[in-house]
Amino acid sequence: MDPAITRIAMWSGPRNLSTAMMRSWENRPDTSVMDEPLYAAYLDETGLDHPMRDEILAAGPVDVDDAIAACLEAPADSTISYQKHMAHHLLPGTDRSWIGGFRNVLLLRDPRRVLASYAKVRAEVTLEDIGVPQQLELAEYCEFVVDSDDFLTDPAAHQREICRRLDVPCGDALLESMLNWPPGRRPSDGVWAPAWYDAVEASTGFGPAPTTPPPVLPDHLAEVGDQALAIYELLRADRITVA
Fold first, then answer.
1. Residue 18, Cα to own-chain centre: how many angstroms?
2. pTM of this prediction?
3. Is the dihedral of CA 187, 207, 160, 148 positive or negative?
4. 191 contacts 59 by C-beta, under 8 angstroms
5. CB distance 67 to 61 below 8 Å
6. Which SS3 state, helix, strand or coil, does residue 7 take?
7. CA distances (Å), origin 161, targets 19, 46, 96, 168, 238
8. SS3 of 64, please?
């Protein structure tokens, strides 16, 4: 891999801040982004019925080795490759050796909020579907943890700290570009955008931090929620903080 390229892998679960974070990084003039590059291979391997499954498989790549090879390619006309990854797309049989060549970060969200949102799109949800066990595994590769609720209390301070830790320039003009972006869909968005991205397509910046407590989950999600919360609290203990 070209050492002049900074490759950032932001490992998130679904229904998090991940697409807005991708928007933020794509608005930098030095950065190219990839939107969930392992998604098609994940669906092909698992056979899961996600919204727009056929379109996702057709867009590919469905071979996981091809997907990883694409992740390792140098971006055109950019010195930073920012990759939005879903932790649950990293299946048990998937090669992990390539991850070490990235600057890896965990992006967390309280799983009670994740489950309440995710269940509106897919009624049956497992712990693996929201990527929490996978994030626990990925913690050994990741340099630090970002909690989305904390981030939204002060996006500017958190982005500056994230850039500092990743050894990425973040002067005032670059920081401003990461906090404000034009609305609408992007060519870089995954083909699944119509099923998931309505809110972020309308956005021009990060939204406010939550002001209400996490929801009480219905009975059919309570056990998954309890298991996920225990892992989340363990990982969240290592989150970055800003003064």
1. 4
2. 0.95
3. negative
4. yes
5. yes
6. strand
7. 19, 37, 27, 10, 14
8. helix
| Residue position matching structure tokens 């950032």 | 8
Q: How far is the C-alpha of 78 from the C-alpha of 160, rounded, in Å? A: 20
CA dihedral 170, 176, 177, 180 (to 10 degrees): 140
Would you give the DSSP letter of residue 120?
T
Which amino acid, residue 124? Answer: E
Dihedral angle sign, alpha carbons of residues 163, 17, 156, 201 = positive
DSSP line for 123-190: S---TGGGTHHHHHHHTTTEEEEEEHHHHHH-HHHHHHHHHHHTT----HHHHHHHH----S--TTS-
Distance from C-alpha of 163 to C-alpha of 161, rounded to nearest angstrom: 5
Q: Provide the residue-wise pLDDT of the chain in tens; the chain has 243 residues.
A: 667 899 999 999 998 999 999 999 999 999 999 999 999 999 999 999 999 999 999 999 999 999 999 999 999 899 999 999 999 999 998 999 999 999 999 999 999 999 998 888 777 889 999 999 999 999 999 999 999 999 999 999 999 999 999 999 999 999 999 999 999 999 999 999 999 999 999 999 999 999 999 999 999 999 999 999 999 999 999 999 997
Residue with tokens 């309505």: 198
Q: Which residues contact 189 (CB under 8 A, 6 or more apart)?
A: 35, 197
Q: Are 68 and 121 in contact (CB under 8 A)?
A: no
